[in-house]
């Protein structure tokens, strides 16, 4: 698919978010636009010949964001900067059994929208 088709598909596919935050979590770090950058950065990096990232960690003054790359799902943790980053990353092994079914649903939805894009005129989606 071309870039414009990918962009169109991103707008169609629902983003499922499980949000558990307290009032001290920064609001802009919870925005879908910010959290979705891992998938785009990983895709661009793989086009440059880099292997896909398993995780990305961003540190700020008072918090950190750990994102686990389990495409098409990206799992994001927002924690205090003093939190144990290695422990957060190790949670992936425990989360996989719970998220496998959700991952399959998202992959099926992506396949459907890819098929629909190729077989239906774009104006039928509006």
UniProtKB/TrEMBL annotation:
GO BP annotations, alphabetical order: cellular response to amino acid stimulus; positive regulation of TOR signaling
One Gene Ontology cellular component: Ragulator complex
Keyword Secreted: no
Keyword tRNA processing: no
Gene3D superfamilies in the record: Dynein light chain 2a, cytoplasmic
Subcellular location field: Late endosome membrane
Lipid bilayer topology: Peripheral membrane protein
One Pfam family recorded for the sequence: MAPKK1_Int
Keyword terms, alphabetized: Endosome, Membrane
Function: As part of the Ragulator complex it is involved in amino acid sensing and activation of mTORC1, a signaling complex promoting cell growth in response to growth factors, energy levels, and amino acids. Activated by amino acids through a mechanism involving the lysosomal V-ATPase, the Ragulator plays a dual role for the small GTPases Rag (RagA/RRAGA, RagB/RRAGB, RagC/RRAGC and/or RagD/RRAGD): it (1) acts as a guanine nucleotide exchange factor (GEF), activating the small GTPases Rag and (2) mediates recruitment of Rag GTPases to the lysosome membrane.
Family membership: Belongs to the LAMTOR3 family.
Protein name: Uncharacterized protein
């Amino acid at each position: 698919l071309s870039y414009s088709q990918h962009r169109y598909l991103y707008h169609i596919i629902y983003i499922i978010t499980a949000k558990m935050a307290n009032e001290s979590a920064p609001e802009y770090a919870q925005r879908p636009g910010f959290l979705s950058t891992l998938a785009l950065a990983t895709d661009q990096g793989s086009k440059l010949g880099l292997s896909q990232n398993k995780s990305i960690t961003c540190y700020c003054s008072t918090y950190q964001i750990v994102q686990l790359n389990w495409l098409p799902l990206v799992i994001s943790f927002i924690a205090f900067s003093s939190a144990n980053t290695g422990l957060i990353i190790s949670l992936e092994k425990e989360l996989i059994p719970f998220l496998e079914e959700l991952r399959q649903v998202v992959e099926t939805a992506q396949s459907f929208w890819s098929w629909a894009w190729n077989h239906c005129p774009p104006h039928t989606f509006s």
